[in-house]
């Protein structure tokens, strides 16, 4: 389920919903983690629950600090009390966790783009330092002191366990929860073709199968086998695929290690040593893959931006900036396509148009009025021609319309519609001045094998014949 934080019709109901979601998710994650990775007295060896609160704060356009942090506090106290059976420790651990989430949110939120945490290499490194080092170091002092005062655990060992468990929990799970709450996984899946969806599921399924084989089947510690499929996911699916793949490995490996199965259990003796080694492995995996995923994402973003820039520059090169129509270069490109291999092709016609007395409009009301007249004519042309017809402004008040698949009679009908529209819709110069426009139009149809240059000359000749007849006229080329 994706939680998209947008302005709600009933803000109070939305805030209550957010509080319940945060408290419930935090309680479930915290209770399960303590039960699986702690003996009830010491610090849990992995802690993804804080990532839920951090992701909720980062996903909200205007973070609701009190709502999210109070929900986390309640969920944390209840989970700790149920699993540890004391009151003092849950309160102090909750304070430490909220301090950690608040620091991380402040450090990351200022530079967290709307597209996610792993868009650039520099952004990824800032996220790792803030969430994986600074925030858990500060909270670790409170957490380790609590473990010493309540359970007599050594401060140095407790601080190291806290730093590793909370740091890795934030770094591994925050990007995933943030993508879920923002709906990125759903949007990404919907934007893909069925073939791309199949590839995504196949690659993540392959990662899960290899992870299961490494942690539950293999009789030797083959951790290196996990890198090729995850690297493949990174390069094929990008940062969202990397997030999903790392979580798959962390979940499968975490369950196996907690149950003393797999390569971690082969390499280390005792639950604490195994937990620390597994954390170190996930840390190496993250430090290897997250910067690569960020680089791949950044290169893809730059490639897309470059393609968009090239497209914009191409459009500017072939488009008239005033009217948005093709300029001479763009019109020539469309002509070349229409006249390519014209043997046995449908007829092609051309309409040449001049705006009558255009200079008089400029002289009387100024060049701004002339621009208004050209824009007015452009709208009328777009309304009267067909979808596959091509309009070009070749300069000044000179326009041409290329009509693929039209004979002389059909082209004449289009010209008649254009002239009628100009007569029907006068031009409003300003609030007090209105003027009627008129057009001189020449129409010609290409003969078999005739080049466009010859067709254009005949259309222009018909246009000049219309002008010679007194303007506001249509003439057909012989």
Helix content: 55-70%
N-to-C CA distance: 69 Å
Number of helices: 16
| Uncertain spans | 5-9
Number of strands: 7
Order of helices and strands: HHHHHHHHHHHHEHHEEHEEEHE
- Mean of residue pLDDT? 85
Strand portion, in percent?
5-15%
Domain GGDEF: 346-478
Organism: Sphingomonas jinjuensis
Transmembrane segments: 18-36, 128-150, 159-181, 201-223, 244-269, 275-294
Membrane topology: Multi-pass membrane protein
Short description:
With 478 residues, the protein is of the alpha+beta class. It contains 16 helices and seven strands. InterPro entries: Diguanylate_Cyclase, GGDEF_dom, MASE1, Nucleotide_cyclase, Rev_trsase/Diguanyl_cyclase.
SSE blueprint:
Blueprint: H1 11-37, H2 49-59, H3 65-84, H4 88-109, H5 121-151, H6 155-181, H7 184-191, H8 194-217, H9 227-258, H10 262-267, H11 271-318, H12 328-338, E1 348-355, H13 358-365, H14 367-384, E2 390-395, E3 398-404, H15 408-424, E4 427-428, E5 434-435, E6 439-445, H16 452-468, E7 473-476
Parallel strand pairs: 6-7
Antiparallel strand pairs: 1-3, 1-6, 2-3, 4-5
Helix pairs in contact: 1-2, 1-3, 2-3, 2-4, 2-6, 3-4, 4-5, 5-6, 5-11, 6-9, 6-11, 8-9, 9-11, 13-14, 14-15
């Amino acid at each position: 389920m994706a939680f998209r934080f947008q302005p709600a019709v009933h803000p109070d109901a939305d805030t209550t919903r957010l509080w319940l979601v945060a408290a419930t998710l935090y309680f479930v994650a915290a209770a399960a983690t303590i039960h699986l990775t702690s003996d009830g007295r010491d610090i849990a060896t992995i802690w993804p629950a804080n990532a839920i609160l951090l992701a909720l704060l980062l996903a909200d356009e205007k973070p609701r600090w009190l709502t999210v942090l109070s929900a986390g506090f309640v969920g944390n106290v209840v989970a700790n009390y149920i699993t540890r059976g004391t009151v003092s420790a849950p309160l102090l651990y909750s304070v430490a966790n909220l301090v950690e989430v608040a620091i991380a949110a402040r450090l990351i939120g200022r530079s967290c783009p709307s597209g996610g945490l792993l868009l650039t290499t520099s952004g990824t490194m800032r996220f790792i330092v803030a969430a994986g080092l600074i925030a858990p170091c500060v909270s670790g002092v409170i957490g380790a002191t609590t473990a010493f005062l309540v359970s007599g655990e050594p401060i140095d060992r407790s601080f190291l366990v806290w730093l590793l468990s909370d740091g890795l929990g934030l770094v591994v799970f925050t990007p995933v929860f943030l993508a879920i709450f923002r709906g990125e996984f759903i949007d990404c899946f919907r934007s893909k073709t069925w073939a791309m969806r199949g590839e995504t599921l196949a690659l993540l399924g392959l990662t899960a199968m290899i992870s299961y084989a490494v942690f539950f089947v293999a009789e030797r510690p083959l951790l290196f086998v996990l890198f090729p499929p995850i690297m493949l996911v990174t390069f094929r699916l990008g940062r969202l695929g990397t997030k999903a793949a790392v979580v798959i490995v962390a979940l499968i490996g975490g369950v196996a290690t907690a149950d003393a199965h797999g390569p971690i259990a082969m390499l280390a003796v005792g639950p604490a040593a195994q937990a620390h080694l597994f954390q170190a492995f996930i840390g190496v995996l993250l430090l290897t893959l997250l910067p690569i995923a960020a680089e791949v994402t950044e290169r893809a973003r730059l490639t897309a931006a470059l393609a968009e820039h090239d497209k914009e520059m191409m459009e500017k090169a072939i488009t008239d900036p005033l009217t948005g129509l093709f300029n001479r270069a763009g019109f020539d490109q469309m002509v070349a396509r229409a006249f390519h291999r014209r043997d046995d092709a449908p007829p092609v016609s051309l309409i040449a148009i001049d705006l009558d007395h255009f200079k008089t409009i400029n002289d009387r009301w100024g060049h701004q009025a002339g621009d208004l007249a050209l824009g007015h004519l452009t709208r009328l042309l777009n309304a009267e021609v067909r979808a596959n017809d091509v309009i070009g402004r070749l300069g000044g008040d000179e326009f041409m319309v290329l009509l693929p698949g039209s004979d002389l009679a059909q082209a004449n009908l289009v010209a008649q519609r254009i002239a009628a529209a100009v007569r029907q819709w006068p031009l409003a110069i300003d609030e007090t001045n209105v003027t009627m426009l008129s057009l001189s139009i020449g129409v010609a149809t290409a003969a078999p094998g005739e080049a466009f240059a010859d067709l254009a000359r005949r259309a222009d000749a018909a246009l000049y014949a219309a002008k010679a007849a007194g303007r506001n006229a249509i003439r057909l080329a012989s």
